[in-house]
Amino acid sequence: MTRVVIFAEKPSQAKAYAEAFTIQEKTKTYIQLKQDETFPNGATITWGVGHLVELKEPHDYKKEWKKWKLEELPIVPDSFREKVAKGKWEQFQEVKRLFQQADVLVNAADVDREGSNIFYSILRLTGVKGKPVQRLWINSLEKDEVRKGFKQLQGNEKDLRLYDEAKARQISDWMVGINASRLFTLLLQKRGFGSYLTIGRVQSPTVYLIYQRHKEIENFRPEPFYQLEGLFQSGAGAYKGLADIKEKDKAKVEALMDKHGLKEKEDVTGVVHSVDKKTKYQKSPKLHSLSTLQSMANKRWKYPPSKVLKTMQSLYEKRLVSYPRTDCNYITESEFGYLVNHLDAYQNALNVSFTPASLKPNKRYVNSSKVQEHYAIIPTKTVPSEKKLSGLSREEQNLYYEILATTLAMFHKDYVYEETTIFTDVQELLFKTTGKREVRSGWKELFPKPSKSKQDQEPTLPDVKKGEEVGANVQIKESMTQPPKPYTEGQLINMMKTCGKLMDEQEDVEILKEVEGLGTEATRSSIIDTIKAQKYIEVKKNLVSITDKGIMLCEAIEGTLLSSPSMTAKWESYLKKIGSGEGSKQVFIQQTVQFMEKLIQETPGAIEHVHIKSTEQKKKWNEPIAKCPACATGSIVDRYKFYACSNYKQGCTVTFPKRLAGKTLTQNMIKTLCEKKRTRVLKGFKGKKPFSTALMLDEEYNIKFDFTKKKAE
């Protein structure tokens, strides 16, 4: 009897897999499946809870590495090891027990390099060896796709290469984060900096992109420029036009007027020199990848990229859309086939009706050679009922309808418009006027009409004829050059993806183009969240600005590879080689060590120019927050990553976390807990759903949730 154990990344994923088969038993830590055609002896599904294991902290290797000291750098363990993440011991032990009992293991974590990393890191820590491993590789959680995927399990050769790629990335990011953060913080603290910097291979160049835009805006000096504008009156109506001149020097524009015998605001006669009408066809947009969806949703609804990813993950787990963490805009003929079969149902769900222009695949959307691990985000075969749609959140509805409309647009007619160009002759000086008229709405009828921006407000032009005389009035139009605008969060996603355009070295441009810029489709939104949390940037009314702390970080890393996307370009390029079997994890890690050693050598002399912004935080650092509730002689102080008693050297072990269930615990909350043993009801905790609760201190000075207070209130 072959015992099959399937590992899912999270409980919701395990539940989706289980529902594709017949469940025999459900427990807190696993689901037992009945025997069937796919699993003749049944199977057991277990799961992680986020990351069950994580890389050890520096102090787990050597106690001397706990304190931040320049002389201890670089911190490079002889070998990198994992440990069970805090609070996840019980689930890990259960996974270990099931792995030990298994004859065959199936890695059914997310189908990307991080999914490979999660599975093999856990497997390594369990100590289980020599068992065959197979890989589930699917793009949808629909029941028939899940069943099909389990019948066509893949070998684990590619999975192991992806694990090596992900582990090399994780270890190198750990080394850069640990060493560079300590290096820059300690050197700047010597010069009076009162806080700390966190530095990361991807987050730091991202902050630097925002800093560059900040400098462009700050250094911008508006300048006037002058054009010649003609106001024309025909029998069919009025219109405007511009002469082919744009000058900073007003005298040059005045000289052109003199040359043609024109005076400002004087009524003269013009003649329509030519009228050119062209019919133009616009194809529907490409299918969505995660970043195009994040960018669009931020522009239309101001959704932060992280909210888009979270919402799409929810729609994926509800089996309504395909795998969301994709960087691909194409599908294969297989997906196109099922979309054709469900066209009527999709139209009903979107409450539209049209006759498809074509049911043949078009290379603009359907191209198997462009699809690697994942295809574009499209609706699944599961078409929700009206009741199910109305039960979705507003964000889920908006994004589902967008995916539906973009997919249906592929089958719709082109958008057709007529572009008109009029040249008007005024005393042998030509003025150009352009306008646009919709001929057929085509695929655009599937989408909500956008609010009229200046760009869209092209005037409807009067129907004038060549040779027709019109009333003309010419004037000098003065305008000012405009500074670049701050990025929105959606534009920041695009900037991270296309930052190769800013590189000087053509080789780096090509690499960044190939690896799609900074971060991956799955990580960009979390990188933005990280630099927000670190107070390097602020987002107000959807506009991203850099803080004083962010400016200081950028001044400190300026000129190093940490400020340049080229480091990420070279890293990602080599990481891809590891994933394809052409590169070595060990070589990559060794190169990172060399990079850190060079940085440690060069940085002390390179940061003298940094302007230390504020030392206010230094005064607050280690200041008492409240009396220690345990020893009474010590005080609770901020210890950077947590709160602790100042008498820790005398043996007082009281500590409090900085974050609990996704919420930051402020100094005021800790003070209240120490003095009153209980807080008021607080909002913003995160579990399976957001929740509110009071906090209390138990007899051993651990923070616990107090839901009774909520009921009492």
Automatic annotation (TrEMBL):
EC primary class = isomerase
Limits of the Topo IA-type catalytic domain: 159-600
Name the residue ranges with Basic and acidic residues bias. 442-469
Q: Which family does it belong to?
A: Belongs to the type IA topoisomerase family.
Return the annotated region ranges for Disordered: 442-488
* Listed CDD domains: TOP1Ac, TOPRIM_TopoIA_TopoIII
Q: Which PROSITE patterns match?
A: TOPO_IA_1, TOPO_IA_2
- The protein's superkingdom reads Bacteria
EC number(s) given by UniProt: 5.6.2.1
Taxonomic placement = Bacteria, Bacillati, Bacillota, Bacilli, Bacillales
The reaction(s) catalysed by this protein are:
ATP-independent breakage of single-stranded DNA, followed by passage and rejoining
Alphabetical list of SMART domains matching this protein: TOP1Ac, TOP1Bc, TOPRIM
| Protein name (database record) | DNA topoisomerase
Which InterPro entries does the protein's record reference?
A: Topo_IA, Topo_IA_2, Topo_IA_AS, Topo_IA_cen, Topo_IA_cen_sub1, Topo_IA_cen_sub2, Topo_IA_cen_sub3, Topo_IA_core_domain
Keywords of this protein's UniProt record, alphabetized?
DNA-binding, Isomerase, Magnesium, Metal-binding, Topoisomerase
